[in-house]
Automatic annotation (TrEMBL), chain A:
Regions annotated as coiled coil: none
The entry's keywords: Amino-acid transport, Signal, Transport
PANTHER family: ABC TRANSPORTER SUBSTRATE-BINDING PROTEIN, LEUCINE-SPECIFIC-BINDING PROTEIN
Native species: Bradyrhizobium iriomotense
Family membership noted in the UniProt record: Belongs to the leucine-binding protein family.
Residues annotated as domain Leucine-binding protein: 28-365
Tagged with keyword Signal: yes
Protein's UniProt name: ABC transporter substrate-binding protein
Signal peptide start and end residues: 1-25
Annotated InterPro entries: BCAA_transport (IPR051010), Leu-bd (IPR028081), Leu_Ile_Val-bd (IPR000709), Peripla_BP_I (IPR028082)
Automatic annotation (TrEMBL), chain B:
An annotated Gene Ontology molecular function: ATP binding
InterPro entries membership: AAA+_ATPase, ABC_AA/LPS_Transport, ABC_transporter-like_ATP-bd, ABC_transporter-like_CS, BCA_ABC_TP_C, P-loop_NTPase
SUPFAM superfamilies: P-loop containing nucleoside triphosphate hydrolases
Keyword set, alphabetical order: ATP-binding, Nucleotide-binding, Transport
The protein's name in its UniProt record: ABC transporter ATP-binding protein
Record lineage: Bacteria, Pseudomonadati, Pseudomonadota, Alphaproteobacteria, Hyphomicrobiales
Keyword Nucleotide-binding: yes
Role noted for this protein: Involved in beta-(1-->2)glucan export. Transmembrane domains (TMD) form a pore in the inner membrane and the ATP-binding domain (NBD) is responsible for energy generation.
Domain ABC transporter: start-end pairs: 8-249
Family as reported in the entry's similarity comment: Belongs to the ABC transporter superfamily.
Automatic annotation (TrEMBL), chain C:
One Pfam family here: BPD_transp_2
Membrane topology listed for this record: Multi-pass membrane protein
Spans through the membrane: 6-27, 34-51, 63-86, 98-117, 145-162, 190-212, 224-249, 256-279, 312-333, 340-361, 381-406, 413-434, 458-485, 506-527, 547-569, 581-603
Family: Belongs to the binding-protein-dependent transport system permease family. LivHM subfamily.
Superkingdom: Bacteria
Keywords: Amino-acid transport, Cell membrane, Membrane, Transmembrane, Transmembrane helix, Transport
Subcellular location: Cell membrane
Segments for region (Disordered): 610-629
Organism of origin: Bradyrhizobium iriomotense
Designated name of the protein: ABC transporter permease
Length: 400, 263, 629
């Protein structure tokens, strides 16, 4: 059977590839994985962000004198492929830690891999609460404010609205479901008087926006919670605008203020939505100014939230590596727990209790300016203020 | 021969498509070892008749008894299990398999080994397969891919396949269509010999009247779905009704016949 | 009341865009029998080009002109694709064109990002159709009304085209019987090219018309392609009216379905298709496929068991593969395990496809069920690994037994689509039933026990199981069952006439293939330590098809090679470049053109030629294997 010959050929090819990656002593490697080919709109700015960070770190002398190298892999949006990549990074490239991922299920898959193989993993973008809570493990840390935190930030603003009749529109998968669940729970705690009059669950990426908008309008809510994003959001906004769904209704929307999602809406950006996001144009802090200047100088482009996440992921990773002074995973964990790292948003801490970073987000309102969508009246919400009490967290997280 | 048991008894077979009777009230009998020809002009209902006999098609009314058993509502594979072999007007063989494998499949089925996942099919009853192929004069073709065969050879292969379950009745729909005249006579002689030796009843349709009159013990004639004549070759040849039907249609036959050979 | 009218109209508007794309696909399939996977890609490119044109050209004329020009431009691309690529492979085994168009789709997905950038693009609103019309207090976007009118207008134009022109008559004739048209002396080449162009034009027009209401982005194709296939199948392949009715049916069921079950959209079209196909096996307006006519005198190489030399060679190759852990690192071994698992998956589909003539588009369902079976047993029942590996695949077996029973009642593309529907139903159960399956966050922590945990041990385990499975299926191919199964593939008529219960044979084959795929899935769960709905997804099913076709569907060992080449290449490319889809797609297209019989098919032909006995019949390529009757 010629089959087996091919097999051997393939095996040799892999072998040679494996040996070629000799470990140089003067380098520290971080293995980075993200959905570059599936979600380029979000991962391109993210990549630019971490590349800037690598450049800055090495310009400042590297990590304890060693040069930082990031080896980046695409996961194609598939958990199984992410694990293959993680394995390659750990087994073949000998990286000191793993970082990255965007989608929640991929974040969980890599986190589980890290736990099994005893590798340090810094999850960059996945939002699911499971990463740090129900499926949390000692090897996994997470940077971006979680689903719960974003919901809590929005609820704070939403609870002040007079609206009592609420409807929800969310993509029909774990992220959408848990976003709605947490929002409802926190909201009902603050406002026992509100009613949930309709919920719509379009499939992620396949919203048939007309009927959905129509169905929500029919329930006649006073306020709407939206969790859709990307192309679904564009369709929803367009149909909603045309059909007058958002007229005289409050809308609270996850992530919509992030430039990744807000910018494509251009002059059709709905006004007055309460959103979480990243108004890079109106943040006036020295930390952010420095970042913004460096970013624009290097790329001649403005940053998206992904840029911040990518930048901060590598900055945090470097800080952890520097403090640990070793690539031993146990030492990395010890170094990371409770570690404070500066960021363009101010100082953040990796909590010891659940390994969640206290990086926050901005909450504000959408508005139109010069034919483009912007966030106005925005304010930074520190992540630490929107997490449940330690006692609750301990109940949520399995014992290591 | 007159004491031979009745193999096949057909009573009042009727089938219509969209109000047009393809076959109407056809009844006849066939005895073991007897060679019965079913003839009739184009569109007379011969193929419909055939399809009903082996269960390919369900009659609207009427009854078919095979070896004393009512098979009217039975499926082709059930009819086959009772011992009925069939060849098709347009041959149906397993084109990607070799000639021997075609026969072996029939033998596998006959010996109820269809769900045998472990045995070796290439060695399955090889000798019997070769014997059957030799019987129909195809011994030298055993290892040829079936798809390569000429049309006449396919017809012979079909006969070998039809004989694989030691049938008591052979249904042959235009067995010699597409063959050279010489081959036709050979094939029908062979069929007749096998039928006599094993006391197999044969029902066949045929356009070539020479073949029919030479080999049939008895002939039944269909026209527009009804039986218009029945009897020995001599009787049928002399039947004025048959003559009337055939004089007007002879040319049509020939033309169609050749066309059929080409497809 | 007004609400229901408006909801109905909204459904109609959705139906109109679906219909445009579906009608094109239906026409192409009806005539050329090409399962045009790239139809969604043409739709997407139509939207992108229309975006650019309408952005550059101003005014109403610029907008509408841009839309039409975009559709025409894409049609031109379609003509090129047909002439350069598809024409070469019309005579390749059925579904080989699927492989070619799949490769094309992969390429386009990366190309649009290279050309237009990664961001979602917001197209212009249609001049004159920007607002909404008030209907008893409900707003209907005027663009929706435009689409509602456009749908029947296009239907009418197509009807006239098919009923009133010579070209249309030929197309209709070709839809019913390709060979007959060839026999009439019509230049089949140009008929096919023109049909392809019309089909692609409709797809691109559908895409271009989306820009006022959608975002233009690089995943548009996948979003629509499956749904469009489903619509075409529900309507009946080749039937334009069917496509229209099906589009309306699906859209309206969705529009009203979400009022009662807001989560129904994700699965609705597949449920409808499954029900329609079970009740009406040829779709609402379809007719039974004319059995493919076999020209006498053509053949494929008859299959034979390995000679003793070949056996020795395989054994030696296996020995080398087994020695891999002696010199390869952990990563190579884990990749080796993954490849071995995909060999299992591919040979299982190959058994169904090549031996049984049943091309399943949803084979991942049984792979995934095997994986979930293991996950349930390991995580919920806490059973030991070896027990899980033995019992897990039974879930695949069970699924195959249930779904296979219905699926084998159909044949050809209808069979393929029903298997796809079942797979999507299983997928959405795994996706939605969060309390049991964990939804898309999957089930984690399914790691192997100590004895199999090291990469080398797991590799040996996977290699061993893959070898056993491959040998077992090979034995089955040359068993009496395997012969009889091939017989049913070659001629169902003859098979029934010699006592073979065709459906039962096919069902048995389906269960065997499903169980075997389940074995692969079970190992996969342990390799990855987790199970996700992805393991049941369409893209995995397509991967399996590609592996089988790449190796050569007419050969016995094609799937093994196909799986090794495809998987190894895929893993390597994904690791090396972000443009893996572009490279992989180009590779597939190249293979299709150079080796139209697959890699192993090609090798066999070369071997035959070297022996001097050139295979009888240069017609080799003309023999479509597959669900022919």
């Amino acid at each position: 059977m010629r089959a087996k010959n091919y097999f051997v050929g393939a095996a040799f090819a892999l072998l040679v590839g494996g040996m070629a990656s000799s470990v140089r002593a003067q380098e520290i490697k971080i293995g980075e994985i993200n959905s570059y080919s599936l979600l380029p709109a979000f991962t391109e700015p993210y990549r630019k962000g971490w590349q800037l960070a690598v450049e800055e770190i090495n310009a400042a002398g590297g990590i304890n004198g060693k040069k930082l190298v990031v080896i980046s892999k695409d996961d194609g949006g598939k958990p199984a492929d992410a694990q293959t990549a993680a394995n390659e990074l750990v087994s073949s490239e000998g990286v000191a830690m793993l970082a990255g991922t965007f989608l929640s299920n991929i974040g969980l898959a890599v986190s589980d891999f890290a736990n099994q193989k005893k590798v340090f993993f810094l999850a960059a973008e996945p939002l699911t609460d499971a990463v740090t809570w129900s499926k949390g493990n000692k090897y996994t840390f997470r940077l971006r404010p979680s689903n719960y935190m974003q919901a809590a930030m929005l609820v704070e603003a939403a609870a002040k609205l007079p609206a009592k009749r609420w409807a929800t529109i969310a993509p029909n998968y774990e992220y959408g479901q848990s976003a709605v669940a947490v929002f409802k729970k926190l909201m009902s705690e603050k406002r026992p008087d509100i009613q949930w009059v309709d919920e719509q669950w379009p499939p992620q990426g396949k919203i048939d926006a007309g009927p959905v908008v129509q169905a929500v309008a029919q329930a006649n809510p006073e306020a709407i919670l939206n969790v859709t994003f990307g192309a679904d959001l564009v369709k929803l906004v367009r149909e909603g605008n045309t059909r007058g769904l958002f007229k005289d209704r409050a809308v609270v929307s996850f992530l919509t203020g992030e430039p990744e999602y807000l910018d494509p809406l251009k002059d059709e950006t709905p006004e007055g939505w309460i959103v979480t996001g990243y108004p890079w144009y109106s943040i006036k802090t020295p930390e952010h100014d420095a970042f913004l200047k460096a970013y624009q100088a290097k790329y001649n482009d403005y940053p998206r939230l992904g840029s911040i996440v990518g930048y901060q992921t590598i900055k945090s990773a470097a800080a952890i590596l520097a403090k640990a002074g070793s690539t031993d995973p146990e030492k990395l964990i010890a170094a990371a727990e409770g570690l404070s790292v500066g960021s363009p948003f101010g100082e953040t801490t990796f909590r010891k209790i659940d390994h969640q970073s206290t990086l926050g987000a901005f909450v504000g309102k959408t508005a139109l300016k010069d034919g483009k969508g912007v966030m106005v009246e925005s304010s930074y919400k520190k992540g630490a203020d929107y997490l449940p009490s330690d006692a609750e967290v301990e109940k949520l997280r399995p014992k290591d | 021969m007159s004491v031979a048991p009745t193999l096949l008894a057909v009573e009042g077979l009727t089938k219509s498509y969209g109000g047009i009777h393809a076959v109407r009230g056809v009844s006849f009998e066939l005895r073991a070892g007897e060679i019965l020809a079913l003839i009739g002009p184009n569109g007379a209902g011969k193929s419909t008749c055939f399809d009903m006999l082996n269960g390919q098609n369900k009659p609207d009314s009427g009854r078919i008894r095979l070896l004393g058993e009512d098979t009217t509502a039975k499926k082709p594979r059930e009819v086959w299990r009772l011992g009925v072999g069939r060849t098709f007007q347009i041959t149906a063989t397993f084109a990607t398999m070799t000639v021997r494998e075609n026969v072996q499949v029939a033998l596998i089925s006959h010996q109820k080994q269809l769900l045998n996942l472990w045995g070796s099919a290439p060695r399955f009853d090889r000798d019997e397969a070769v014997r059957l192929l030799e019987l129909v004069g195809m011994g030298g073709y055993a290892d040829r891919p079936c798809g390569e065969l000429a049309y006449g050879d396919l017809k012979r292969l079909e006969l070998a396949v039809a004989l694989a379950n030691e049938p008591k009745l052979l249904l042959m729909d235009e067995p010699t269509a597409g063959m050279a005249p010489r081959e036709r006579i050979d094939l029908m002689r062979l069929t007749a010999r096998i039928a006599r030796e094993k006391s197999i009843g044969v029902l066949f349709t045929e356009h070539d009247m020479d073949v029919v009159f030479e080999h049939a013990d008895r002939i039944i004639v269909l026209n527009r779905g009804t039986l218009i004549a029945e009897g020995s070759p001599t009787e049928v040849r002399g039947n004025p009704q048959v003559q009337a039907v055939y004089l007007g249609e002879g040319l049509v036959y020939d033309a169609r016949h050749r066309e059929g050979a080409a497809t | 009341m007004a609400f229901y009218v408006v909801q109905f109209l909204t459904g109609l508007a959705s139906a109109a865009s679906l219909f445009l794309v579906a009608s094109g696909l239906s026409i192409i399939f009806g005539v050329t029998r090409i399962v045009n996977f790239a139809h969604g890609a043409f739709y997407m490119v139509g939207a992108y080009i229309a975006f650019t044109l309408t952005d550059r050209l101003s005014g109403a004329f610029g907008f509408w002109g841009g839309i039409v020009v975009a559709a025409l431009a894409v049609a031109l691309i379609g003509v090129l694709v047909e002439m350069v690529l598809l024409r070469r492979i019309y005579h390749a085994p059925e579904l080989f064109q699927l492989l070619a168009t799949f490769g094309l789709t992969l390429m386009v997905e990366d190309l649009v990002v290279l050309i237009w950038g990664p961001d979602d693009l917001l197209g212009r609103r249609a001049p004159g159709f920007k607002g909404a019309v008030d209907f008893f207090g409900q707003n209907i976007p005027s663009y929706d009304l435009f689409l509602i009118v456009l749908g029947p207008v296009v239907l009418g134009i197509l009807w006239l085209l098919f009923q009133r022109t010579r070209w249309g008559v030929l197309v209709r004739a070709a839809t019913q019987d390709r060979d007959m048209v060839a026999a009439l002396g019509v230049n089949q080449k140009w008929l096919f090219t023109s049909v392809f162009a019309v089909g692609v034009f409709l797809a691109a027009l559908g895409g271009a018309l989306q820009i006022p209401r959608d975002a233009v982005h690089h995943a548009m194709d996948l979003r629509i392609i499956v749904e469009v296939f489903v619509v075409v199948v529900i309507g009946g392949l080749g039937s334009i009216v069917g496509a229209f009715v099906a589009a309306v049916l699906v859209s309206e069921l969705n529009a009203f379905g979400i009022l009662i079950f807001p989560k129904i959209s994700i699965i609705l079209v597949f449920l409808v298709m499954a029900v329609v196909l079970i009740v009406r096996p040829w779709g609402l307006f379809g007719r039974p496929e004319a059995p493919a006519r076999r020209t006498p005198g053509l053949t494929v190489n008859p299959w034979r068991p390995l000679t003793s030399n070949e056996r020795l060679a395989s054994l030696a190759a296996l020995g080398v593969a087994a020695a891999l852990p002696l010199f390869a690192g952990n990563y190579a071994l884990t990749v080796g395990s993954e490849i071995a698992i995909f060999v299992i998956f591919a040979v299982s589909l190959h058994f169904l496809m090549a031996v049984g003539g049943l091309a399943s588009f949803g084979h991942a369902a049984y792979f995934g069920l095997g994986a979930y079976g293991v996950a349930f047993l390991a995580k919920m029942a806490g059973l030991p690994m070896i027990v899980c590996l033995l019992l897990g695949p039974l879930l695949g077996c069970l699924g195959a037994a249930v779904f296979g029973f219905f699926a084998v009642q159909l044949s050809g593309v209808y069979f393929a689509m029903l298997t796809l529907a079942f797979a999507q139903i299983v997928w959405s159960i795994a996706f939605q039933w969060v309390s049991v399956t964990g939804g898309d966050n999957g089930i984690l922590g399914v790691w192997p026990e100590k004895w199999a945990a090291s990469p080398s041990h797991f590799y040996w385990l996977a290699l061993g199981v893959a070898t056993l499975v491959t040998i077992a299926l090979r034995i089955a191919v040359f068993s009496p069952f395997g012969y009889a199964l091939r017989a049913t593939r070659d001629s169902a008529l003859r098979s029934e006439a010699i006592g073979i219960n065709v459906k039962r044979m096919q069902w048995t084959a389906f269960v065997i293939a499903g169980t075997t795929a389940g074995i692969g899935g079970a190992l996969f769960a342990y390799l990855k330590g987790s199970v996700f709905p992805d393991n049941l997804g369409i893209s995995l099913s397509v991967d399996a098809l590609v592996m089988v076709l790449l190796g050569g569907v007419e050969t016995v060992s094609g799937a093994v090679i196909g799986a090794i080449v495809y998987k190894a290449l895929n893993i390597w490319l994904v690791s090396q470049t972000d443009l893996s889809k572009l490279v992989l797609g180009a590779f597939i297209v190249l293979i299709v053109v150079v080796f139209p019989k697959g890699i192993v098919g090609m090798l066999e032909m070369l071997a035959q030629r070297r022996k001097g006995s050139s295979p009888p019949g240069s017609t080799l390529l003309a023999k479509p294997i597959g669900p022919a009757e």
